[in-house]
Specification:
This protein is an alpha+beta fold. It has a single domain (about 5-100), classed as 60s Ribosomal Protein L30, Chain: A (2-Layer Sandwich). It is about 55% helix and about 15% strand. It has a four-stranded mixed beta sheet, with helices on both faces. α1 packs across α4. The longest helix has 15 residues, at about 5-15. It is globular, with a radius of gyration of 12 Å. It starts with a helix and ends with a helix.
């Protein structure tokens, strides 16, 4: 199993553990409230969304990942989503370590 598959499995595990916030509004709120430790946004999201999330994550110093498509994210978490935020430091650290 490669790191990409491991990372997607980790997203599914975080979803089942209740440590994942999904959807544009809730993810942006998790960034603003500093409850989100790592944000994953689909690379096929709209240019406006990509800019909005990039600016917000940069401003709040939160890691942003644009390596996955919306289909991959949706399949991993079982919901049709383009954005999600890990709200647990352990999950965020594990996810980040798979992308080094």
């Amino acid at each position: 199993m490669n790191n990409k598959d491991k990372a997607l499995n980790l997203l599914g595990l975080a979803q089942r553990a209740g440590k994942l916030v999904t959807g544009q509004g809730p993810v942006l709120e998790s960034i603003r409230s500093k409850r989100g430790y790592y944000v994953i946004l689909a690379k096929d999201a709209s240019p406006r969304s990509i800019k909005q999330f990039t600016d917000k994550c940069h401003s709040y110093e939160i890691a942003l990942n644009l390596d996955y498509t919306s289909e991959e994210i949706s399949r991993a978490i079982g919901k049709n989503r383009k954005s999600c935020s890990l709200t647990d430091r352990g999950f965020a650290k594990s996810f980040a370590s798979l992308h080094r």
